[in-house]
Amino acid sequence: MQLDHVFGALSDPTRRAIVMRLCDGEASVGELAKPFEMALPSLMKHIRILESSGLVASEKTGRVRTCSLQTEALATVEVWLAAQREIWEQRLDRLEMYVEKLKKEEKANVRKRRSK
Amino acid sequence: MQLDHVFGALSDPTRRAIVMRLCDGEASVGELAKPFEMALPSLMKHIRILESSGLVASEKTGRVRTCSLQTEALATVEVWLAAQREIWEQRLDRLEMYVEKLKKEEKANVRKRRSK
DNA sequence: GCTATAGTTAGCTTTATGGCTAACCAATCA
DNA sequence: TGATTGGTTAGCCATAAAGCTAACTATAGC
Q1: What DSSP letter does each residue of B33-75 carry, written as one string?
Q2: Residue B107 pLDDT
Q3: Distance CA B35, CA A64 (A)
Q4: Which whole number is the average pLDDT over A8-12?
Q5: Cα–Cα distance measured from residue B5 to residue B56, given in angstroms and rounded to the nearest whole number
Q6: What proportion of chain A, given as a percentage, has pLDDT over 70?
Q7: Which of A29, A51, A72, B7 is most buried, with most CB under 10 Å away?
Q8: Beta-carbon count within 10 A of A7 CB
Q9: Right CATH number for B3-70 from 3.40.50.1360, 3.40.50.720, 3.40.50.150, 1.10.10.10?
Q10: Top-confidence residue, B23 or B102
Q11: Per-residue pLDDT reduced to its tens digit, B80-90
Q12: Could you tell me if A69 and A56 are in contact, meaning their C-beta atoms sit under 8 angstroms apart?
């Protein structure tokens, strides 16, 4: 599973809607297609993309294909984002500490200057 | 800030690399360009895309443009993902409870059958 | 003021994306 | 077995994406 494909898959509103729909449980291709004013083959493409991204799995029994969500992929993306934000926030913290240090030094300087 | 654009922006490896680089602090366009074997205008396009997605901000002073990360956008995506996963997991929980219920009933049935 | 540096604009190419229709296959169901 | 339903394949089109080069603008440094 690659971030590229997962982010790519989620960048389309139709596909995000499908993911949201699948959060409520499995669905057949036809069921997924209903809310959209879109030809079946077009929707199938989206499903394929979701599948190749690892976000969705599907299985065909008889003539109906049932799709379901694969949460591991969602989790992977969450982890990546959280990691980035963490690094960033650590940096902000350091910066903040540095600023605090500067402020204290400045206060000290002010006191010094006053006492001169 | 729209999910479409943020996910779209993050679906490209070059742009994710830029985001990761900016986690370590601000950088000029030139600095950002260095690690990539890519013409400047191409890289600039990526920066524009990151900017229009709200992930990155930039300001030009003199002749250098300095770019920085806007964490709110990252946070927004995280929230969306977490929400989806939560719904999904709640559903799994309900399903699990249902399965447990079924198991208990089955056990009860077995006991009944034995006592017959 | 000339030159080098840092971006920017314009315009081109190639490939990918998102949509369509029409025709097709394979299970159900009457 | 013939019609209907559910999905699939193939192939087309328009637009967007990702890259390039070449030429341009505007600051900084000498």
Answers
A1: HTTS-S-HHHHHHHHHHHHHHTSEEEEEETTEEEEEE-HHHHH
A2: 55
A3: 49
A4: 93
A5: 12
A6: 77
A7: B7
A8: 24
A9: 1.10.10.10
A10: B23
A11: 888 887 888 77
A12: yes
Query: Among candidates A97, A13, A9, A87, which has minimal Cα distance to A54?
Result: A9
CA–C1' distance B61–C3 (Å)? 21
Nearest to A7 by CA among A80, A82, A87, A88: A80
Residues present in chain B in total: 116
Reported as a single tens digit per residue, the pLDDT across B22-72 is: 988 899 999 999 999 899 999 999 999 999 999 999 999 999 999 999 888
pLDDT of residue A4: 84
A10 in reach of chain B (CB within 8 A): yes
Handedness of CA B71, A4, A80, A92 (dihedral sign): negative
Residues by CB within 7 A of strand C: list them: A 8, 11-12, 14, 37-39, 41-42, 45-46, 49, 61-63; B 28-30, 33, 40-41, 44, 47, 60, 63-65
Hey, where are the domains in chain B?
3-70
